[in-house]
Specification:
By secondary structure, the protein is of the alpha/beta class. 29% of the residues lie in helices and 14% in strands. The protein has a ten-stranded mixed beta sheet with strand order 7-6-5-4-8-1-9-10-2-11, with helices on both faces. It has a four-stranded antiparallel beta sheet with strand order 13-14-15-16, with helices on one face. A hairpin with a 2-residue loop joins strand 6 and strand 7. The radius of gyration is 21 Å and the shape is globular.
């Protein structure tokens, strides 16, 4: 957060003095800044569900097109499940600091005092629209219509619901639609972009697919039927998302907005029903903190302004807020800047060889305790720290025999309910736990499946990263003890 925070603190001081801030690396030339942004968050698609990432089965021409033409972060991580990722993405700070620790109520309700990136865009005069899965609470003032979005299209009560012929809340009014929900969301988002083509816009498009229920038109799933280890319906749902992304990119070009619009495509957690087809060699699925549970797709394209190619530096969802604030010169107050956990990735977008702060680390925690009051006993239940190419992992259950959270974790280490499979995979190695009371250290540069524990070989690194985790836990504990949901 150091680079952005110092710049934004100066911003706040200058704005307080009634002056116009001009301090970004993009200077004051509007031609050097994107005008619009489309942020697409894909629900339950893993890093390995892209042909360009090595998937030997899936055909994903639009994702592959982004891979060729965008800056793509190859060491980018999100939360182990969806609502927490959404909170971190929109606020620029770890989801626990916004009281989001689960995907169920009340623990998915985002703190009303949290500032979203949409609010900053709205304050800057951008047209703002949400088309898809909010999943951060709708009761009272929690809905997206109160959190910075002028236009909204989502499902009532944050339900996952069905994919065909859905009833959606269009600007808070229940509206019946015909067709496949993903197609509808993209159609509405593209109409929003066309309506606002003469003014800057922020379009947030979080899909409901390929999350279950696994349902899609047969023409998408049929090419994958009958293949060993391949879930045809899930694969077809990925194909549909891919097709819609291609349609959106083509529409931007047709509207002559391609060179003015930053397109960001991110997945919201690790792999799910595609893990047994291809998981890019990683251990872990959605819901875990092994790398396969948090590594995400992360494509960033602004016409041809960002040099295409990989960015291997350690990055994550908490960096998105800071990056957008930097790129679009949004007005961020000094108190808000000091709350951010992420850094601006603008230097990396502009130069693949740029160096980030050598000391920066990011923490990921599964959360998902069954009741808000049970947070303390789950301090080491699915947690990790990332630093450069290292990941420090600790996965152990609590001491309460009747804890439903930990009972499920133990079941999955031997196969769910005794079956030889975890929830998303037939390979129970994805659900492996660490030895109680001990951290394990991995360098995934040459060990993607995290099999070679380096803790004994590199005790100084373990100490450094453990200290960071303990400080982080102390920092979030007051919020967990008195959540704002």
């Amino acid at each position: 957060m150091k680079r952005l925070c110092s710049a934004l603190i100066v911003t706040g001081m200058l704005l307080f003095a009634g002056l116009q801030f001009v301090g970004s690396a993009l200077a004051d030339d509007a031609s050097k800044r994107p005008r619009n942004v489309v942020l697409i968050l894909i629900d339950d698609m893993g890093y390995g569900d892209v042909a360009a990432h090595g998937n030997p089965v899936l055909k994903t021409p639009s994702f592959d097109r982004l891979h060729r033409t965008s800056a793509h972060f190859t060491n980018f991580a999100v939360s182990p499940s969806c609502a927490p990722t959404r909170a971190a993405l929109l606020t620029g700070r770890h989801e626990f600091k916004s009281s989001v620790t689960h995907t169920i109520l009340p623990m998915r309700n985002m703190d009303l005092n949290a500032t979203t990136i949409a609010q900053l865009f709205q304050q800057k005069g951008f047209a703002t629209g949400l088309f898809g899965k909010w999943h951060l609470g709708q009761a009272g003032k929690r809905g997206p219509w109160f959190r910075g979005f002028d236009e909204t299209l989502t499902v009532a009560k944050d339900s996952q619901g069905g994919h065909f012929d859905p009833t959606l809340l269009k600007n808070r009014v229940k509206t019946k639609f015909k067709g496949y929900r993903t197609d509808i969301l993209f159609n509405e988002a593209m109409a929003f972009m066309e309506r606002n083509r003469e003014k800057p816009f922020f379009c947030y498009l979080p899909t409901y697919t390929p999350h279950a229920p696994l349902k899609v038109a047969p023409n998408y799933s049929k090419p994958y039927e009958g293949r060993e280890g391949v879930n045809a319906k899930f694969s077809g749902m990925v194909a549909n998302v891919d097709e819609n992304i291609g349609r959106l990119l083509d529409r931007l070009a047709k509207l002559k907005l391609e060179s003015d619009t930053l397109v960001i495509v991110i997945s919201d957690n690790g792999g799910t029903f595609g893990v047994d087809t291809w998981n890019a060699g990683m251990r872990g699925t959605k819901g875990s903190v092994w790398r396969g549970g948090t590594r995400a797709v992360s494509f960033w394209r602004w016409g041809d302004r960002f040099p295409a190619g990989p960015r291997p530096q350690m990055t994550g969802h908490v960096d998105v807020f800071a990056t957008l604030a930097d790129l679009f010169r949004l007005d961020v107050s000094k108190p808000l800047a000091q709350q951010l956990d992420g850094d601006s990735l603008q230097p990396l977008l502009e130069d693949a060889q740029a160096v980030m702060d050598e000391d920066r680390m990011q923490v990921h925690h599964r959360g998902r305790w069954n009741k808000p009051a049970n947070w303390q006993r789950h301090k080491y239940t699915y947690c990790c720290v990332r630093w450069k190419n290292f990941q420090l992992v600790r996965i152990e259950t609590c001491d309460h025999a009747n804890c439903t959270t930990c009972k499920k974790i133990r079941q999955r280490t031997i196969g769910r309910n005794g079956a030889v499979r975890t929830y998303y995979s037939r390979n129970i190695k994805h659900a492996r736990m660490t030895k109680r009371g001990e951290w394990e250290l991995y360098d995934f540069t040459n060990d993607p499946f995290q099999e070679h524990n380096l803790a004994d070989e590199k005790p100084e690194i373990v100490k450094k990263m453990t200290s960071h985790y303990e400080g982080w836990w102390k920092d979030v504990s007051p919020v967990l003890a008195d959540p704002a949901n």
